[in-house]
Amino acid sequence: MSGIYVHVPFCRTACHYCDFHFSTALSGVDSFVQAMLKEIEMRRDSGVWKDVCFETLYLGGGTPSVLDASDLKLIVESINSAFRNPLGQNAVFLESTIEVNPEDVNVESLKGWRAAGFDRLSIGVQSFHDSQLKWMNRKHSGKEALRAVELASRAGFNRISVDLIYGLPQSEGDWAKTVETALSLPIDHISCYALTVEPRTVLGARVKKGIEVEMPDERLERDYLFICDSAKKAGFDHYEVSNWAKTEKSRAVHNSSYWSGAPYLGLGPGAHGFRSNERYSVVSNNHLYISSINSGKLPDTSEVLSKRDRCNEVMMTGLRTAKGVDFELLEKKWGYNPAKINSTQWNARLKSGDIIPVRADNEIYFRIPEKKWLIGDSIASDLFVT
Ligand code: SF4
């Protein structure tokens, strides 16, 4: 399953914890949209993607909902006519997601997103508590977050995901209320990430000065296990370390393509793309992006991944999923079987229950049990082929 990711590098305010690429200078939006339309043509004309059939479209950022619906429509139409998708030229993708922030959700914007071709919303809720939202420097209130989900549902969106953050300086009772509130809403998907302290952010500076402290691991674990447990009781399937879906059809198809190692096209400053063992990154600077595109040059840097890199990457992302990894297939595809190469580590992990066998598609897969997902990356990196 291949997908197209568009990075919209603008936000209304800078959240204190965020180190994604974005700018709050919204006066640059028009030039960005013009450059994006050119980038789409340039990638099409490069011919590199002509034999790829893209099944999903994902607008992320940044905050795509700061763009007018008319600009979003232009971008989507341009993508639709430039690249192949399963329903033919100028048709919608099988899944088209837009990330939106609660303060941008209203009856008009919802109509506009629908008209632009989006059938799935990922709403940046993060918390329903005003004090936490303020602490993060989010622009919306808890009430606005609730209203956003309800309006979206009433407008006919039946694929709604909400983003939540755990590890905030809040009581366990407040975290429980956020989770329970989210689960009571008309949504079919939740993404939930731990707050991480990034050095080049307001939060990072505050932690360095001792004004804020990082949440201890034991508390992070309790918050994580709380949502795991509550989501399960509410009928959500925990299909990836940070993602829960109400039904199999509610799973984020677009993200699944990253986890499966399929090619994906990235557009916009700060985006990444991947094709034929080559990964490229588009420059993370709006000004450089626009000037480079306007002078007819794609502002990419790229690296070629070896079979060993690909094997490690596919294993790492696969072990973040409930399905797990078919190690025999890894060997067939990339020439390495980390389980055989790191047999001492492998046997120790199997013995301790950090990795367990499961049957899927008539094959034996190996996965990390849910309770150990928080330490999953270190389990996977122990098995890296070096
Ligand atoms: S809205 Fe999202 S991308 Fe923008 S600053 Fe906040 S967390 Fe970062």
Keywords:
386 residues, alpha/beta, TIM Barrel, Arc Repressor Mutant, subunit A, 2 domains, nine-stranded mixed sheet, three-stranded antiparallel sheet, 15 helices, 40% helix, globular, binds iron/sulfur cluster
How would you explain this protein's 3D organization?
The protein is an alpha/beta fold and 386 residues long. It folds into two domains: 2-259, TIM Barrel, CATH 3.20.20; 307-382, Arc Repressor Mutant, subunit A. 40% of the residues lie in helices and 20% in strands. It contains 15 helices and 14 strands. The strands form three sheets. It has a nine-stranded mixed beta sheet with strand order 7-8-6-5-4-3-2-1-9, with helices on both faces. Strands 10-11-12 form a three-stranded antiparallel beta sheet, with no helix packed on it. A hairpin with a 2-residue loop joins strand 13 (356-360) and strand 14. Helix 1 (29-46) packs parallel to helix 2. The longest helix has 18 residues, at 29-46. The model has no long low-confidence stretch (mean pLDDT 95). Bound molecules: iron/sulfur cluster (SF4). Iron/sulfur cluster is lined by residues 11, 14-15, 18, 20, 22, 61-63, 101, 124. Iron/sulfur cluster (SF4) binds at residues 11, 14-15, 18, 20, 22, 61-63, 101, 124.
List the helices and strands and how they pair.
Layout: E1 2-8, H1 29-46, E2 54-61, H2 69-82, E3 95-100, H3 107-115, E4 120-126, H4 130-136, H5 142-154, E5 160-166, H6 172-183, E6 189-194, H7 202-209, H8 217-233, E7 237-240, E8 243-245, H9 253-260, E9 264-267, E10 272-275, E11 278-282, H10 286-294, E12 300-304, H11 307-318, H12 327-334, H13 338-341, H14 343-352, E13 356-360, E14 363-367, H15 376-382
Parallel strand pairs: 1-2, 1-9, 2-3, 3-4, 4-5, 5-6
Antiparallel strand pairs: 6-8, 7-8, 10-11, 11-12, 13-14
The chain binds iron/sulfur cluster.
